[in-house]
Amino acid sequence: MDPEPDATALPGPRSRALARRLAAVECRTVTRLDPVGPIFWAAASGGRVRDADGNEFIDLTGGFGVAAAGHAHPAVAEAIARQARTLAHGLGDVQPAEAKVALLERLAELAPGDLGVTILGSAGAEAVEAALKTAVLATGRPGIVAFEGGYHGLTYGALAASGRGEFREPFERQLYGGVRLLPFPRREEGASVALAAVAAVIDAAAGGPDAIGAVLVEPVQGRGGMIDPPADFLPGLRALCDASGALLIADEIFTGFGRTGRWFAVEHAAVVPDVMTLGKALTGALPLSAAVGRAEVMEAWPASTGESLHTSTFLGNPISCAAALAHLDVIEREGLVERARALGELTAARLAEWAARWDEVDPPSGLGLMRGAHVRGEGAARIAGAVADSALARGVILLTEGPAADTLALTPALAIEEADLIRALDVVGEELERALGNG
Question: Which residue in 67, 164, 205, 359 is deepest, having the highest Cβ count within 10 Å?
Fold first, then answer.
């Protein structure tokens, strides 16, 4: 994608005009509007984005991790167009489209272990809701163990289990109170203390009205700050669930489909959950999510009698299913899982250099092309935000994550050009130097 000739300073006049228009019609809680407004995307291809004023950027967000194969991959775009011309919508839970069957079969092939029976949804939070419903049906126990810093979505079941107080607190009185939020261990801390806390909660709740039926965990916390836990954490959770009869639910909405250098992040720990939730990079373009479970667990749901117990108007939308089939084929055909591993090592090495140079930057966290550079100390969030802002001004889109917004998050398309990734890391490093000094 070549830059437009009328590129302007940021944000340009078209973006400023769009911000004014947006402010008049969208609830103010949705999009942050600074005095001059954000940039507005107009086009994207591969690992690059162009805004409404013709400015071009290297995208280190991958569109929130959606565009694994890159923005607007031709094979995905063609699959969407072809399906839209033939069947754009169907009766997903009554008279489904063939594309839904093909996608469910493909997910069963890809999923680890004996995971193979799926409930589809639209947003990732819907998949989490389906997984939590599955747990209470399968175990008869409504209680949930989840983790501080975890993010599972903003619908009420998922929100109750999200470890981000700023999202929960305004609605606390309407949320289920049987969720126990426990510390999520960092890689360097070891897992024993965290696992002991989980075991204690399961034991204490046993026999009560909120007995634990589900342990919900991200194999790598995304919005929590790109945090990968100790290697024995997920196996430890698997053992605790096996002993107690609770379901282990792995939220792979961010980590799934190659992001961490494996098809699914649980594969790093050789763990098979009872239910795995998927979204984001499932289609590379359109809303679609899935809760994939073991057959015996999913048998807890009653058979449909023509009125499904869990459904939605757009369940199994054929355009989204066609996009997913095409995107999964591209990820496999182009070797993007292996590419994520290789480019992830390159990224981690650069982040390690930053940590060695500046005391304010922690060693890199995360796996594959899901990496974080955590800034610590006084003013950490301000510094991280300033680096992201100055990088944007130089043509690099970068987000901050973590409850304190003090982690620079690097989640580019798995298909990003290596030269673009190196250039973007150069820019971020130079802006860190500007913010922190020479070290």
Answer: 67
